[in-house]
Amino acid sequence: MARGKKQNPFAARKRQKRANGAPERPDRRAEPYKEIERDNAAFIKYYHLQNICADEEEWTQFLASIRENLPTTFRVTGFKDEAKALLNIIKTQLFTEYVRAVAELHELPPEQVERPLCLPWYPNGMAYQLHLTRKDIRRSEPLFRLHNFLIVETTAGSISRQEAVSMIPPLVLDVQPTDKVLDMCAAPGSKTAQLIEALHASPEQHKIPPGFVLANDVDNNRCYMLVHQAKRLNSPCLLVTNHDSSFFPNLLQTDEATNSKSILKFDKILCDVPCSGDGTLRKNPDIWMKWNLAQAYNLHGVQYRIVRRGAEMLAVGGRLVYSTCSLNPIENEAVLQRIIKDSEGALELVDASHLVPGLKYKPGMTDWKLATKEVDAIYTSFDQVPEQLHTIIRPTMFPLPAAEMSQIGIEKCMRVLPHLQDSGGFFVAVIEKRRPLNFEKNDLEDLLKKAEQLEKPAQSEAQLDESGKPVEEEKSVPWGPQRKRRRLHGYKEDPYVFFGEDDADYESIRQFYQLNETLNKRCLLTRCQTERKKNIYYCSDPIRDLVINNENNIKIINTGVKTFVRCENRHTVHPYRLAQEGLQTSNAFIGSSRRIQVEREDLILLLNCTDPTKPPSTLELKPETQQRCKELGVGSCILKYVDEAFTLFIVGWRGTSSLRAYVDRDETIHILRLLGADLSKFEVNKYEKAKEAAAAAAAAAAAAGDAAEQKNDETEEVMESSEKE
């Protein structure tokens, strides 16, 4: 083995067992997949003990429901202009196809098929539940059009596939466009996307929302998943960071009026904390095999530290939502009673049921019991816990006395059980801050001092101690001290380089696109330090302020929406084209010289051109469009289409004698669907493709067999002739 190379302990253990003559595990890869047994004696005993259901009849319903697969749910992205038009297509065309396909799948008459359910508690009827599982949709040929629709529209950012109960926390957080929002445990990003939607809910009032969403996660890899999810919404008001939420650092902000620095306090905070996840048993049946109480005991402290840190960063009058996908009171009510008690009246639980009218739920529990890992010993107070379990089961996990519990108002929490409305299990609590906490940390002076030190030029001479030896400086990392609790792994991020006052590229962009003065050029940025910029991004003013003040205090993963892309062409006078991702933002700042209005038939023609090397000639367009093209020079432009129900803006490219739409495949299908165009060209039936591939493989095998047989015959003839000779 090479020097310094670490040995794989698992492979070493396997070799050792083989050397000792231990029997090898049987290879079961060829055996058929066994369905997971949806049963766990400890789980059933524990929750029956907690009386989470009113009576035995309801308990039976609960057990039956939690053993079934979870139905599929999705919601329409509400802030987009074309949302109502897409919702109308979903209600008519998609659901008609849904009924036909389900009838074919289950061999039922169409009138017996259960229609999709509009979730009554989701605003504006924008969310639906299908009576099909993910497996049904993925693996059933009659449903391939529904599957294609869900994939394409999700990628285009028009809908989001998300578990129904997962939609509740952002709704009760009640985000407004002016709010500073923190999502402490954001990955994979479905709730973050909801927060962004709420931020952009009033486009007629705010071109760019004054508020922002800071989405954080401790896992570096999951941060990139979060970026992928959130980027579908193309918001310039999003910042993604990578840090341990329980030790999230205070951030600096600049006061516009006084130009002074202060510690940032958030108006809204979402704490969707890590949990045992037993509320997701319908979606993740493998939890049946793994579930035990040790998970809840281990997570209780982490959950408390996260919500405590969130409460510290919350502004007075602000709102914090604590949520888990667990049913366990140790992870839910026990955490909340602890933080409310420790706050000494600064925090208050509030009722937010009016924000989700029609949602069926049970109130928070005021009494519960603890048990050993195997649930073979039950404890009602810490005095009953054996000494050897004192490090696992803590006094704060037990319910407070009835008199104290009644003052906390724990019944204002919402416990969503699977059988109440055919969903997953979930827990949600809403907290409001009445005054500053006694234990809040105010380290403004330290942060300012640290910022000043980073701004100072590095000293050329090394400092020496009394003996003349060089003094070792403390090592600092961009994401702050971690107290050795967790090492944050991941890639080194590219720098965030904002445009200066006299940036040469900006001046040429401004002149070509006639950018108006309301665009703050200092909010444009690149991710490289070379003069030749490739991609130019745009972020809002508050996000720029956050990045500049805190990039050395926390690890920033991503921000900004792609707005301009270098696209040099020998026929164009300007090297940057518009990016479709950023058009939602940049459209408001671009003048009239690079715009062209197109008719429905012209737009369908442009979108149906899938070969970028052969764009439609302008002569194929309507005379009105041809005339507008003549007035437009070569280069990037905005195609505008006005419908009765919506208006579309699409990035285009005006060639010397052609015009093309600059959008990807999924966005193309989405727009064609809105226009009512024929989509058969883009419909892919993976089952037909698989059959064709199998037939081609069989034909190739048969041809190979015939060739081999013919060769054998020829060989035999040669041998026979040689024997005769």
From TrEMBL:
It comes from the Eukaryota. Residues 1-18 have a biased composition (Basic residues). Residues 714-725 have a biased composition (Acidic residues). GO terms for cellular component: cytoplasm; nucleus. The keyword RNA-binding applies. Residues 62-434 form the SAM-dependent MTase RsmB/NOP-type domain. Residues 1-32, 455-480, 704-725 are annotated as: Disordered. Belongs to the class I-like SAM-binding methyltransferase superfamily. RsmB/NOP family. This is tRNA (cytosine(34)-C(5))-methyltransferase. It comes from Drosophila navojoa. The lineage of its organism: Eukaryota, Metazoa, Ecdysozoa, Arthropoda, Hexapoda.
